[in-house]
Amino acid sequence: MSSMWKGSKKDNGDQLTAEPPHPIPEDDVSRSSRRSYEPSRRSAEEPNERTRLIARPPNSDGYLDPDDPAVSPYNLWTVRAMRYLTILFLIISFLWWVLLLVSIFVSPPGLHTRGSGFFDFAYTCLTIGNLLVATIFFVTPARGLRITTAIIAVLLAVDMIIIVAAPRIRLEEGWVGIASVVWAVVMAVWCILTDRVVAYGKKEEEERLTGRAETRRTLKEWLAVTVATILTVVFIVIVFLMTATLGMRTRDSTLSMYGERILVDGDKYAVHLACVGNVTYTDDKRDATILLEAGEEPSEYDFEHWAYAAYNNGTISRYCYWDRPGYAFSDNAPSPHSAGMSADALSEALAVAGEEGPWILVSAGTGTIVSRIFSSRHMKQVTGLLLIDPLHEDLLHRLGGPGRGFMLWAWGVISPLGTVRLAGAVFKGRTREDRVYGRNAYQSGKFIKAQLQENLVADSLSKNEVSSARNIQSSDTPLAIVSSGIEVRKDSEWERKQKDLTTLTDNLVGWDVVNKAPHQVWHTLEGRSVMEKRLKALVKAAAKVKLQEDEE
């Protein structure tokens, strides 16, 4: 080859280029070519203080599209911090909710309230609901949502004032109830503040990244706002009903009572005890006092009326009655609470009030379980037993069924709404007496809690206590039983168990089955007459037993 370079024809026409005798590697060529062009490219693309951090899309005016995921209030640390705090508050509220749920069944030390505890639970449920709405719909703030939450906060603040200002309500709810409602108010205000901060952050980020605040909403955002608003409107209805029920409770708490409330069980709760008539003596011996124990209803609801009629006509000279924990004017006891614990509370209340025996116990229904335990623990003071359609210990499983327990719990959870009680007061003219110890007493949270407590231990603790009481019951105690004819006819097992109860002692005064009487035997004239006749026989039998003891 005469020349050092050899010409070659390329694809771009007749232009000749020279090839070096030793081919240059392709990587070296590309590097050398990049070196020749890189300075100018670097000078054009070198980032500076005016360079955008986010690349501009093609044909853009320099702003992001409003639907770009980068346009988010989460860009602000304050918004992220508030979300984290909202989740933290939700966790705290859930843990408190669990603790209150457990305390309905087993009262932890220091967490017992003298009320039902269902209001505390309801406020915590409402708090969790508010925080869940704020968390789920965090990035879709709306003015309507803030307005509805503000209404909730105002109503909760009214509840807080009522609980703190009304002495009896404050006593029943205790520090647990006050803490629950205060927390509910604070969290409602927090939800309003959070929504407002997110709305401000959303507007700021849209102006910075898109050039203007977005006024339109996507279908998804409208759906989120609608659902959140509907939920908060439901919360408004709930808290309004709770406020109305709390106001009704405040009015009911001013109802006067006969007798006094006595603190028992280490001053954990108070029970109502009342006595009618003066103490009388025969041959320097104190005459027996009738001690009433109601069944499934408070003593004041027509059972005590029968005793008052017997007192007026001279059948008895004196009687006392009380309300078991959770009934009428008595506070709720800590959970669990058995029939034996009620008997002990009655014993303590009588001792504090200075009441002494001898006693003739008159009880009905489930109250007969308490009376039998009381009798076995005060054998020398009990001189007679009148059991009215009594509940047998072998039938306590009916009282302690799990299905009944769940229904009582569910009814208790919604009891703060007070829909039935409010409707009764507004449309049927129900009075305070009806709600506290009358026909509507079963609708109160305290009463439901007491029934739930009886249910939880009926077939365990209470059954063991009454079975032991039967074994140690004095055999010479005068006994009379009056049974419901309706109950006996429709339930053969009930009839067999009524007959078995006639063997509680060896001194049976009589067993009567009142033909047309219901479980509340005193609701019929014949039932009241039979009960009074048997009570007279017990008074005479008790006097005879006392005389025999004196002679011995």
From TrEMBL:
Presence of the UniProt keyword rRNA-binding in the record: no
TM ranges: 84-106, 118-140, 147-169, 175-193, 222-248
Source organism per UniProt: Neocucurbitaria cava
Keyword Hydrolase in annotation: no
Sorted UniProt keywords: Membrane, Transmembrane, Transmembrane helix
Name of the protein described by the UniProt record: Mitochondrial integral membrane protein
Composition bias type Basic and acidic residues, residue spans: 24-52
Pfam families per the UniProt record, alphabetical: DUF2417
Region entry Disordered, spans: 1-66
